[in-house]
């Protein structure tokens, strides 16, 4: 409300100075019941402070003669006084834009003389996506006339738009310095260039130079991480080769059968053990439970989390997955609600 009052004072001051004024943008208030889908179910709709402010700011009956109460006109209602469903804002969380379940919060307001003489039409662009609001606009029959001088609050007079590069000192704040730091800084500033070079040389000479052993502990060469390998190892001359009789020991057919049976038994045991482990983990990690079906459409629900402060903060619940819309529309979200059981 403080912003509303300041906006009105500034706009009326410009009108008193002989200028025309257009107020364009998101005022965050649905003025009349026709500008809000669910105005009937809202308590004290007409008593909202924002709506009372707009009542005093605007002319009630649009462009009709003799209806002047406020200095400004809602240009859209001037050209479309009875247009229903003309909304500019929808809830993105509930998907209300899909069924046009929203409100009109964005306006093109103009002073009465300007709207009556120059406005040709006013429009909304609900098909333009990219935000929870849609663009609004108006068509004026005017020609640009250069002003003698820019207004004192014009953006070009702001420092960040002056066209000159700002110094970094403008972003810094001078701090109070203690006496010891100020005295040492003064001594350094009074040194001659020769003294400064001598001090730098003295500092470099007092630095400890790394020893030969220390240098070996420095950064390693990349080749130090690789060990030389011989692709063709040579046999030692003193190595005795085994005889052919010791290398080749023929197995009997009975030994082959026993080895085959033992291998199959081990493979079967490993398979059984793997199946046991798999069934155990499946029983332990059963995965998410299937979504319940809503009562109105018998369709899978969506899970939501309570974010409102209170005893149920953080609890999960199920609701209809369809977008929010008027209760009389069967294609809109039904009233199904179910708390999620704690796992």
From TrEMBL:
Any GO MF annotation of the entry: DNA-(apurinic or apyrimidinic site) endonuclease activity
Polar residues: compositionally biased ranges: 208-237
GO CC term (a single one): nucleus
Cofactor note: Probably binds two magnesium or manganese ions per subunit.
Site-annotated residues for Interaction with DNA substrate: 133
Principal EC category: hydrolase
Region (Disordered) residue spans: 191-242
EC number: 3.1.11.2
Taxonomy, superkingdom: Eukaryota
Classification via PROSITE patterns: AP_NUCLEASE_F1_4 (PS51435), ZF_GRF (PS51999)
Biological process per Gene Ontology, one example term: DNA recombination
Family membership noted in the UniProt record: Belongs to the DNA repair enzymes AP/ExoA family.
PANTHER family: AP ENDONUCLEASE, DNA-(APURINIC OR APYRIMIDINIC SITE) ENDONUCLEASE 2
Protein name: DNA-(apurinic or apyrimidinic site) endonuclease 2
Organism of origin: Lipotes vexillifer
């Amino acid at each position: 409300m403080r912003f509303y009052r300041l906006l009105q004072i500034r706009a009326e001051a410009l009108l008193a100075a002989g200028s025309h004024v257009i107020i364009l943008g998101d005022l965050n208030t649905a003025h009349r019941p026709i500008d809000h889908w669910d105005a009937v179910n809202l308590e004290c709709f007409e008593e909202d402070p924002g709506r009372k402010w707009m009542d005093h700011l605007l002319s009630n009956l649009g462009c009709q003669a003799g209806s002047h109460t406020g200095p400004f006109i809602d240009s859209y209602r001037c050209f479309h006084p009875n247009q229903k469903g003309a909304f500019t804002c929808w809830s993105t969380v509930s998907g209300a834009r899909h069924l046009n379940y929203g409100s009109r919060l964005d306006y093109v307001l103009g002073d009465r003389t300007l709207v009556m003489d120059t406005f040709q039409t006013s429009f909304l662009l609900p098909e333009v996506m990219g935000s929870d609001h849609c663009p609004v606009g108006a068509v004026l029959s005017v020609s640009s006339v250069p002003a003698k001088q820019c207004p004192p609050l014009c953006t070009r007079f702001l420092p960040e738009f002056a066209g000159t590069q700002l110094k970094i000192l403008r972003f810094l704040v001078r701090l109070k310095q203690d006496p010891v730091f100020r005295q040492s800084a003064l001594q350094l500033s009074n040194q001659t260039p020769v003294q400064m070079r001598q001090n730098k040389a003295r500092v470099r000479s007092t630095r400890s130079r790394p020893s030969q052993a220390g240098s070996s502990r420095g950064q390693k060469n990349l080749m130090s991480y690789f060990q030389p390998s011989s692709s063709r190892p040579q046999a030692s001359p003193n190595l005795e080769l085994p005889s052919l009789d010791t290398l080749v020991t023929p197995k009997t057919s009975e030994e082959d059968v026993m080895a085959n049976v033992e291998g199959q038994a081990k493979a079967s045991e490993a398979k059984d053990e793997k199946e046991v482990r798999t069934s155990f983990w499946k029983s332990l990690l059963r995965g998410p439970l299937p979504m319940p079906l809503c009562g109105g459409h018998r369709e899978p629900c969506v899970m939501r989390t309570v974010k409102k402060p209170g005893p149920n903060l953080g609890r999960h619940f199920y609701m209809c997955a369809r977008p929010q819309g008027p209760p009389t529309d069967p294609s809109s979200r039904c009233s199904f609600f179910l708390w999620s059981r704690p796992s």
